[in-house]
Amino acid sequence: MSDTTFDYIIIGGGTAGALLCNRLSADRSKRVLLIEAGRKDDYHWIHIPVGYLYCIGNPRTDWLYQTEAEPGLNGRSLRYPRGKTLGGCSSINGMIYMRGQARDYDHWAQLTGDDAWRWDNSLPHFMRHEDHWRLDVGGNAGAPGADARFKSLHGHRSHGSSGEWRVEKQRLRWDILDAFSQAAQQAGIPASDDFNGGDNEGVGYFEVNQKSGWRWNTAKAFLRPACYGRANFEMWTMAQAKRLLVQTQADGSRRCTGVEVATGEGIETVHANCEVLLCAGAINSPQLLQLSGIGPGALLQRHGIAVVQDLPGVGANLQDHLQIRTVFKIQGAPTLNTLASSLLGKARIGMEYALRRSGPMSMAPSQLGAFTRSRPDQPHPNLEYHVQPLSLDAFGEPLHAFPAFTASVCNLNPTSRGTVRIQGPDFRQAPAIAPNYLSTAEDRQVAADSLRLTRRICAQPALARFAPEEFKPGVQFQTDEELARLAGDIATTIFHPVGTTKMGRADDPMAVLDSQLRVRGIAGLRVVDAGAMPTITSGNTNSPTLMMAEKVAEWIRKGRAEPAATAVTAPRAPAAVGA
Q: Which of 166, 181, 297, 472 could form a disulfide with 211, with the two C-beta atoms 3.0–4.6 Å apart?
């Protein structure tokens, strides 16, 4: 085997890519190459939990994407962070461990025709890499009553204790957040001490991907302890995939055989004997497919790119969680606004973290969560709250000078759909990202209903002693129309783009992948990242992406003796209309 020929080429060293590197390189007879456009995760702010403030918007760790001007956001364009470093978005995200709801995965099974995606069949793949803090001593026996309490919706054990992906409780509490939790319960939302059993309805503190007060990203979990010491594993950082190489076989079928890679030394060509696994994320994966001639035919032709496989779903079906940030001024309780308002306060915060790895520097961006229904007649929880003991006008701007908390609420199951499209043939040019937020009547109604629910929670007796005063959006907005427009003025992404290379049935012309995440019509190529989700999960998306990668690793291992398993011979999809 030459220096440029590998068995598996993995593009993207983020959430899914890091796990796949670990699992596939465990077979020492297989040579694995990881291609990562960013640098190593040796930037100190990656590892200090509050460092997300210095990683988002920083070219050292972020692709620095922006959305197109959004009609649903009244013409605003949003910052759209995507991790550009080993660990990918797990190096800059909110560290929240969240699987979603069982119904999400049962729905995927219906959409793909494959029961492998059902909740009961996905749960083992969540647990396989999980290292849950409650089970630290002797498995379930380590926590009194854990065997009974930590069961999934369908009665199975729901947490693992021997995997690489550390899940811990947060290392701080706030009086104002405890009061919000009590107020939510008074408003009819039950308390919860585990959001990850399949039904996440309730209010409680989020669990986080941290280890002893440090961020736990996928580079530390899956790459550093194992892959770095394997002779069959090679990693290229600051190397960006330029184009996938696809050859037409003797029988007329197409196969991905390698990748052109831009490195500091020029353009390198690498070849794959088995598979290329595209793990670049819901924005960069469809971009690379389109640049390689795999995507909507009309779009590719417009930019002078030869059409290799006409798949109109590449870059379509973009879904994201849009959060509406409400701010309430309070009295009689500390918040980060006041604690960090002076040099002395900041010094105390730094000292607490240095000595105990606790306090505000150990904070995830959101500490308290709640899952509930926008209206009583909703059949399932369709809202998620991220509650924070701080407030500011916009991300990256200074904290307000007054004590306040923020209650951000998002629609878990938006019906709006957007797009990711290349703007030319240059791989270095950012794609056009158009999430199309609040473009449906359903999403606008949920936005209005969620703002009313937030007001109802904040009017409960548990918060009365803090005299909450609505600062943003302001009580002058009352009608559905006013609240929906207001949501467009103040809402922002919570950084959960999915769906742009969705999996689906063979008769779905917009399905880019089959149920094992193989690209239709192109053998030897899979997309393994959040873009493969046909619908967005009812919660944060990092952990579901790890589960998907775990499944694919298992399928690849089991399929090595079955050469036909990677051949996808689905018919070409019809040409895109209006691409």
A: 166
Fold of 171-205+322-411+436-496: Cholesterol Oxidase; domain 2 (3.30.410)
For tokens 């199975």, name the residue. 156
d(CA 349, CA 153): 40
Measured distance CA(133)–CA(391) in Å, rounded: 30
Domains in the chain: boundaries: 5-45+219-318+498-566, 171-205+322-411+436-496
pTM over 0.90: yes
User: How many other β-carbons are positioned within 10 Å of the β-carbon of residue 191?
Assistant: 12
- Residue bearing tokens 């990881």: 34
Count CA atoms closer than 13 A to 511's CA, side-chain side.
Answer: 21
pLDDT (tens place) for every residue of the chain, 579 residues total: 458 999 999 999 999 999 999 999 999 999 999 999 999 999 999 999 999 989 999 999 999 999 999 999 999 999 999 999 999 999 999 999 999 999 999 999 999 999 999 999 999 999 999 999 988 864 443 444 444 455 555 556 789 998 999 999 998 889 999 999 999 999 999 999 999 999 999 999 999 999 999 999 999 999 998 999 999 999 999 999 999 999 999 998 999 999 999 998 899 999 999 999 999 999 999 999 999 999 999 999 999 999 999 999 999 999 999 999 999 999 999 999 888 878 888 898 888 889 889 888 898 889 999 999 999 999 999 999 999 999 988 776 788 999 999 999 999 999 999 999 999 999 999 999 999 999 999 999 999 999 999 999 999 999 999 999 999 888 877 888 888 888 889 899 999 999 999 999 999 999 999 999 999 999 999 999 999 999 999 999 999 999 999 999 999 998 853 333 333 333 333 333 332
Structure tokens at 573: 């999809």
Q: What CATH number belongs to 5-45+219-318+498-566?
A: 3.50.50.60
Strand partners, 406: 327, 388
Task: Decide: residue 563, CB within 10 A, 0-12 exposed, 13-18 middle, 19+ buried.
Answer: exposed
Q: By C-alpha distance, which of 89, 108, 559, 571 is closest to 311?
A: 571
